[in-house]
Amino acid sequence: ADFLVSGRKLSTFFASTTLFATWFGAGTLLTATDAIYYHGLAFTALEPFGAGSCLLIAGLFFARPLWQLQILTVPDLFALKFGKTAELVSAILLIPGYFGWIAVQITALAGIIHLFFGVPVIVGMIVVTTFAITLACLGGMWSVVLTDSVQMVFVGVVIIVLAVVVIKA
């Protein structure tokens, strides 16, 4: 439990930046910028509102009750409400989606490394995967939270700088 939820002692800042990183990670940032590049800003104008609305609704209506249940995963919720069979079925259904989500994150970061440093994408994917596994094994969720927070502060600063540049142009 300590590995998965950092001892349930995250400050609002760390919990928020980690949640932001989870929802608006490398895959989202890169696919949104590609869509804007190829189709224009109007094509993706509502994208952040959908994800943001979902986060607000989840936070306002579901976060506290789920927190009070002391569960760690979605299958844990199904086990509590519907039994072990439902837990197993939900885990089996969720696992492929997680592999896809993780693959997008690894591929996106490897693509960024390729773009900036010329490292072949496959080598970048191996480096990113090795680094992520090592980081998680050595520091658990706390190490993930710290790197998420640093990355999201950086992304926020870059977005503010870009907004200023675009407004001045």
Please give a structural write-up.
The chain has helices at residues 2-5, 12-23, 26-39, 41-44, 47-68, 74-82, 84-117, 121-168. The radius of gyration is 18 Å and the shape is globular. The chain is mainly alpha-helical.
Topology (elements, then pairings):
Elements: H1 2-5, H2 12-23, H3 26-39, H4 41-44, H5 47-68, H6 74-82, H7 84-117, H8 121-168
The proportion of strand residues reads under 5%
Number of helices: 8
Mean pLDDT: 84
SSE run: HHHHHHHH
Report the biggest beta sheet as strand number plus sense, adding barrel if it closes.
none
Tell me roughly what share of residues is in helical segments: over 70%
In one word, what is the shape?
globular
- What integer value in Å does the Rg equal? 18 Å
* Number of extended strands: 0
Question: Structural class of the helix and strand makeup?
Answer: mainly alpha
**Unreliable stretches covering 5 or more consecutive residues:** none
Q: For the record, give the distance between the C-alpha atoms at the N and C termini, rounded to a whole number.
A: 50 Å
